[in-house]
Amino acid sequence: MSQHRHPGAPGRAGAVPTLPDLPEATVARLPEYLRALHNLADAGHETVSSEGLSAAAGVNSAKLRKDLSHLGSYGTRGVGYDVALLIEQIEYVLGLTQRRAVALVGVGNLGHALAGYDGFASRGFRIAALLDADPSRVGEEINGLVVRHVDDLPTVAAEESLAIGVIATPAAAAQQVADQLVAVGVTSILNFAPCVLSVPEGVDVRKVDLAIELQILSFHEHRKASLTALPATGGTALTALPGGFAATDTQEAIGT
Amino acid sequence: MSQHRHPGAPGRAGAVPTLPDLPEATVARLPEYLRALHNLADAGHETVSSEGLSAAAGVNSAKLRKDLSHLGSYGTRGVGYDVALLIEQIEYVLGLTQRRAVALVGVGNLGHALAGYDGFASRGFRIAALLDADPSRVGEEINGLVVRHVDDLPTVAAEESLAIGVIATPAAAAQQVADQLVAVGVTSILNFAPCVLSVPEGVDVRKVDLAIELQILSFHEHRKASLTALPATGGTALTALPGGFAATDTQEAIGT
DNA sequence: CGCGATTTGTGCACGTCTTCACAAGCGCCT
DNA sequence: AGGCGCTTGTGAAGACGTGCACAAATCGCG
Ligand SMILES: NC(=O)c1ccc[n+]([C@@H]2O[C@H](COP(=O)([O-])OP(=O)(O)OC[C@H]3O[C@@H](n4cnc5c(N)ncnc54)[C@H](O)[C@@H]3O)[C@@H](O)[C@H]2O)c1
Ligand SMILES: NC(=O)c1ccc[n+]([C@@H]2O[C@H](COP(=O)([O-])OP(=O)(O)OC[C@H]3O[C@@H](n4cnc5c(N)ncnc54)[C@H](O)[C@@H]3O)[C@@H](O)[C@H]2O)c1
Q: Residue A70 is part of which domain span?
């Protein structure tokens, strides 16, 4: 087929190569593939088929192949993918060839856990600074890092090239912290506070919200419960009537 | 249009009412709306327009209206939505009318933070048990709860009706813990360990993986860097972004 | 060297999600 | 009562994501 030209990570430094512009859904899965690949590499595998890798990553194999095809053609038909090469490619695309510096703001309950987490280091990141607004926390040492005052952010940013800011403060402080991070040039933020952040264009925000995850699970529990609670009514088991309403409309096709 | 009949939460107990079967994407956003609504209620608002609520939740207003329309017709044209009513409806649909019991397995670094988190209680959940495999942790008291041994899970499950299991153990132990949870009847799991869990059909698993979030941010950093490094190609420098982002939301620049 | 077994890469069809745009409905004011 | 401005609810269109199914490519072996 049309020969691919994707630049790849190849040692070649110098010019900034073009990045294939990947579908968001693919980007979100690459880290999963990467983790699975590292496991395979550790287990001594040199190559892996799309079937094998997709099973390890918990996805459909066709989807995996399509995802990888966006990066270029790095598999060998009849054989599979070279594990080491694929790791290199994915890490390149994800921008993990440089160890990115992370600033963690809010060293409370959650912040402490994050600060002590070795998953940062092992996956391409480096905690460059711990920051908090509480004077009584400033100066505390965690894992070899000293907590500094959040107002020192400009100084920290001057010392290090901060790539990502992590917000682990109460929701009430999150927007202000985000503003401070943006002010010193941070363009990627991971927000643990349960609130919406407003940031300028060009700044990416991702959020992790425990309560949302639980509530989504709760919904499915609720749904499962209401289904099993019904007597097995033929095919369409969803017809139980509420208080006393006409069972009208709703285009939703129910049942099988 | 055709009048809606969605059962809703209305005090009427007794029969199990039908749940509208919502699109997954909608389910994932309802918790956000709920949070925004609580904020609005606390601020004294009695009604809110789709425009106002969508701004507070950080989404497109048309999307919000469509999402809410799946629940039934709870707005008033020309006026907006009744905040209290909408809260009630969403909480009903999400199954939050009953406070669900959560079992937290793995009381280490992260587990401690979770155990001490008040966001559980304030959002409709209750930590029913803390469990760990390490004998030296068993017996420790956190926030009024005593850590029990993970092998006591069957006993715990017999005492309480566990709705959700949270796994905060190392990845190597996660699958085994998941099996134990499933064995005692848990059908919803929130997994913090960076690994794929395999569970029987009917069991829902959601995962939270810090490294994945960071790596996705890293990708965008990488992309942004390679773009700005390029000579201004064409006028539209900032148009790169497509419109919609997948279910696992990413918020890109909101606000002004 | 040719053949069959294997596995990738992808065209295509289908389902889901997003967004626009607007008619229908509601409250209020005159 | 009637009209006006505001807001919801939704049809339709398009963007996006998924998964099947298969041709093309590669390897190993006789
Ligand atoms: N603890 C958890 O398990 C958990 C889980 C999910 C989400 N969260 C969220 O994470 C956030 C932190 O939770 P926590 O339990 O660690 O709370 P916490 O109160 O223990 O810690 C918050 C820390 O932020 C600091 N802080 C406050 N304002 C600040 C500011 N303007 N600048 C810098 N630092 C500031 C405080 O001094 C404190 O150290 C909250 O938004 C919470 O909702 C926590
Ligand atoms: N610490 C963080 O900030 C953080 C962030 C994201 C993800 N994670 C992930 O969360 C998990 C826990 O991280 P941590 O830092 O708390 O680790 P940790 O080692 O501090 O704690 C793990 C706990 O699990 C317990 N455990 C081990 N095997 C068990 C079993 N079979 N049954 C029950 N309990 C068992 C251990 O005794 C320990 O108390 C890890 O998978 C980690 O990758 C941690």
A: 24-93
